[in-house]
């Protein structure tokens, strides 16, 4: 019987679930385990029993890994304890001493910190490149270039990257391509289908969706899978079963939530664009955004995260007053949950590859699932307080 080609929303609901294995219960059990018993010495031989030790997998972790691999179109997927842990796992799985590692200049700050402080200890050379480099990235290649790290849109400044073009160029020299895809998730962009080898998500954000779990995922292409599997095992990584279960539960509704996040974000962003104290909105889903054409070509949607710049006459103290005056927007560093959040954006000194950064005061917003009329009213009263 031929397999049915299922759509993503269907896969999100059904992947990783085997009710027949668990007496018909819809969700897999939460297995708290370390020791696994074997019926005989012969059964203890490698591969003779499906589960051998809690750290090496349980029905709970296996369910989430299978679901992630399915929605990513991957050869396999592994779990990590956070998004940053997933990034470090992916990097270490394909880099060795003496390798040259190209990293987009607009990556997540902790990613840059890991690259600057940890990887050089192991003889790995780091070089940052302009995020808009596509065909021009070839000039950055060296004989020892082994991997390229992408993030689209860029962290805080939201520049888009031509992922297929960069991935194609990297493939010409056999380099692995890694991508932090937390912003779009596989619902709106599938990195492996566009030439990426290791797709990374901070599952803390939209997979979990409820601001109560730290978890990361890495999905691998066929050629990257052996290295990821080996490094994951060698590092002894394991995520607690309760966190895995909550991530599985969040995964089932991720598509529905993302649609609402995008709708809300577009309404708020369009309102902000009309305000006299706002100079620019950094959100690729808007037609006026510099990266809109790339986003429209490759992505199926946008999440609830974007930033905006105040006009140059707004002072730092006024921007602080704006943030402190918000009632519905919490001041917090994470995003992807049901609630709306805001943080001040300070980029001076964070770029090294000539990437321009806003000189005016900037704010990053995560638009949650509240009614946009209430969110806009909150932003309006905070702007009034700022101007006063």
TrEMBL record:
Keywords: Lyase, Pyridoxal phosphate. Pathway: Amino-acid biosynthesis; L-methionine biosynthesis via de novo pathway; L-homocysteine from L-cystathionine: step 1/1. It catalyses: L,L-cystathionine + H2O = L-homocysteine + pyruvate + NH4(+); an S-substituted L-cysteine + H2O = a thiol + pyruvate + NH4(+). Its EC number is 4.4.1.13. Pfam families: Cys_Met_Meta_PP. Its cofactor is pyridoxal 5'-phosphate. InterPro entries: Cys/Met-Metab_PyrdxlP-dep_enz, Cys_b_lyase_bac, Cys_met_metab_PP, PyrdxlP-dep_Trfase, PyrdxlP-dep_Trfase_major, PyrdxlP-dep_Trfase_small. GO terms for molecular function: cysteine-S-conjugate beta-lyase activity. It comes from the Bacteria. Belongs to the trans-sulfuration enzymes family. PANTHER family: CYSTATHIONINE BETA-LYASE-RELATED. This is Cystathionine beta-lyase. It comes from Pannonibacter anstelovis. The lineage of its organism: Bacteria, Pseudomonadati, Pseudomonadota, Alphaproteobacteria, Hyphomicrobiales.
């Amino acid at each position: 019987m031929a397999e049915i080609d299922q759509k993503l929303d269907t896969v999100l609901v059904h992947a990783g679930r085997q009710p027949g294995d668990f007496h018909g219960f819809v969700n897999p059990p939460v297995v708290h385990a370390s020791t696994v018993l074997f019926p005989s010495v012969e059964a203890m031989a490698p591969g003779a029993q499906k589960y051998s030790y809690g750290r090496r997998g349980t029905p709970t972790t296996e369910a989430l890994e299978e679901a992630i691999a399915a929605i990513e179109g991957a050869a396999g997927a592994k779990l990590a304890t956070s998004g940053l842990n997933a990034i470090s796992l992916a990097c270490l799985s394909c880099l060795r001493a003496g390798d040259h590692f190209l990293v987009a200049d607009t990556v997540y700050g902790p990613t840059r910190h890991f690259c600057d402080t940890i990887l050089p200890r192991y003889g790995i050379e780091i070089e940052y490149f302009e995020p808009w480099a596509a065909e021009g990235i070839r000039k950055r290649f060296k004989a020892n270039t082994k991997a390229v790290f992408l993030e689209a849109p860029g962290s805080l400044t939201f520049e888009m990257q031509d992922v297929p073009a960069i991935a194609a160029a990297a493939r010409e020299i056999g380099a692995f391509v890694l991508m932090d895809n937390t912003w779009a998730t596989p619902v709106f962009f599938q990195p492996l289908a566009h030439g990426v080898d290791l797709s990374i998500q901070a599952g803390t954000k939209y997979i979990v969706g409820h601001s109560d779990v730290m978890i990361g995922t890495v999905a691998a292409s066929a050629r990257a899978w052996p290295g990821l599997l080996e490094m994951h095992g060698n590092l002894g990584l394991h995520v607690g079963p309760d966190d895995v279960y909550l991530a599985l539960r969040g995964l089932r509704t991720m598509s529905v939530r993302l649609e609402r996040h995008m709708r809300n974000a577009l309404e708020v962003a369009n309102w902000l664009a009309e305000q006299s104290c706002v100079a620019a909105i950094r959100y690729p889903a808007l037609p006026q955004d510099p990266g809109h054409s790339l986003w429209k070509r490759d992505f199926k949607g946008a999440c609830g995260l974007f930033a905006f710049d105040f006009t140059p006459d707004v002072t730092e103290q006024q921007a602080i007053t704006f943030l402190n005056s918000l009632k519905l927007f919490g001041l917090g560093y994470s995003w992807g949950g049901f609630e709306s959040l805001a943080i001040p954006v300070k980029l001076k000194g964070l770029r090294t590859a000539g990437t321009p950064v806003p000189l005016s005061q900037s704010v990053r917003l995560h638009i949650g699932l509240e009614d946009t009329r209430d969110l806009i009213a909150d932003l309006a009263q905070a702007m009034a307080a700022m101007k006063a």
